[in-house]
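Here is the promised in-class demo. Please do not try to memorize the tokens; focus on the logic of going from shape to residues.
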């Protein structure tokens, strides 16, 4: 909400969703997503990008990756299709 307030002061109306209230957007539960929706509407902001940790994993094994996930939950290679589909659902939700 604070970031949206500052952005509004400068006339910025589009946002990239990555970390919101200390959660990666793809790991947010329904309550947090509703909060983000409300914040966006209150500030008249739209979403230009839903960031994901897509393929930020170990591509050679089934174990979680050790690379930078930028606050997202670690996922295995097998989790990537589900992650992508979830990100697409979020993009639709936020009319990205």
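The designed amino acids, position by position:
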């Amino acid at each position: 909400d604070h970031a949206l307030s500052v952005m509004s002061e400068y006339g910025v109306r589009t946002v990239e969703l990555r970390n919101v209230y200390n959660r990666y957007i793809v790991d947010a539960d329904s309550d947090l997503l509703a909060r983000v929706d409300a914040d966006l509407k209150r500030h008249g902001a739209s979403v230009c990008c839903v960031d994901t940790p897509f393929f930020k994993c170990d591509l050679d094994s089934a174990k979680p990756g050790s690379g930078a996930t930028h606050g997202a939950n670690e996922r295995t290679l097998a989790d990537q299709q589900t992650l992508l589909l979830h990100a697409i659902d979020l993009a639709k939700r936020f009319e990205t």
